Amino acid sequence: MNTKKFLLEEKDIPTAWYNIVADMENKPMPMLNPQTKKPLTEEDMYPLFSKAASHQEMNTTDAWIEIPEEVRDLYKVWRPTPLVRAYGLEKALDTPAHIYFKNESVSPIGSHKLNSALAQAYYCKQEGVTNITTETGAGQWGAALSYAAKAFGLELAVYMVKVSYHQKPYRRSIMQTFGAQVIASPSMSTRAGRKILTDHPNYQGSLGTAISEAVELAMSTPNCKYTLGSVMNHVMLHQTVIGLEAEKQMEMAGEYPDVVIGCFGGGSNFSGISFPFIRHKLKEGKDVRIIAAEPASCPKLTRGQFQYDFGDEAGYTPLIPMFTLGHNFAPANIHAGGLRYHGAGSIVSQLLKDKLMEAVDIQQLETFQAATLFAQSEGIIPAPESSHAIATAIREANQAKLEGKPRTILFNLSGHGLIDMAAYDMYLAGDLRNYEVTDEEVKKNISELEHII
Q1: Residue 186, preceding bond cis, omega within 30 degrees?
Q2: What are the φ and ψ backbone dihedral angles of 4, each rounded to 5 degrees?
Q3: What region holds the Tryptophan synthase beta chain-like PALP domain (predicted)?
């Protein structure tokens, strides 16, 4: 009898997160203070982030950082998550490849985002903070932080990218059910939002805009901190519970992946599944391919430039060394709202530079085609974001078939798509289309950056 799900017990939840920077030969370049262009210090981050998150952000020496007991206890609500062998998908593709997926969709909010939300809310509570702010694209991070804020008794304001606010009303309802205030971004409630709306009255928003608004509110509200769901090192750190569990589960399955895949927006779920396996490359020279799958309409890893850039549109954040399309880049209104972000974060950018990973870009229609096949063969309707990883896994499985060679593929199912059915409706009706960014657009946008490197 073939095993479908590989399940760990609660005692197997990792007791520490993995900090990949400690093991990297080439450390990421430092973030810069935008005023002075000098490297950012931990203390520079205190006005915006909790002290614990700031400390984790700057930690380049400790490979393992202990998970607080209160956070680990709340992880037990849904962790450990299953590792699943995708027999149905393998059969549908008639491939010799073995396909596994880590099912992060089983969390209370339906995605991996809760892994970091609980940690960040806990650290804010420990510091005596009463209010927190954040941004959200598709709404999964906002939903996760809404649950986490409630768990630790914090008040939360979420700036939700306007196009997603209207595309995904139920995600907004989830946040409000958990007690959060949700504002469509750009809004008239901040200086950054008012400026953007004055310049572009019909602008449908981006993660960069929403970050600007959330940062501004945090800086102008007493006893308030900003939290975010991707890009920064401490967020990647918290997500490594995914890959650390997957390592043990792949051992249970008696296999080791030839290729590890995650969809890519700012890097949270990708880092979560891949960093523990990149550790084996760094420490043991393991031969494993790591692939980030990004939208063709927002291709910072495949077509962006490595440069210092802001993490937000208004220029409130530190300057981050990363592959970027420019902080003014306005992504197309694709349904994978969580992937509509201009930059890639410093760790992933350095790993890409060092060729420890690779990146592919996927068109919107291919992702929905892959999602539909996955739903029909595995019984789970995936989030549009996760479908980029599925499409890449299918490409790899088809390549294995072409070569007539076995291949072990592991991807992260970062969330389910049950609140994204409007997008599926549009796909099934033939109303979705692909969006291509021209070389001219990319070049023009990048030319507007200050070239510090």
Answers
A1: yes
A2: -90, -50
A3: 78-415
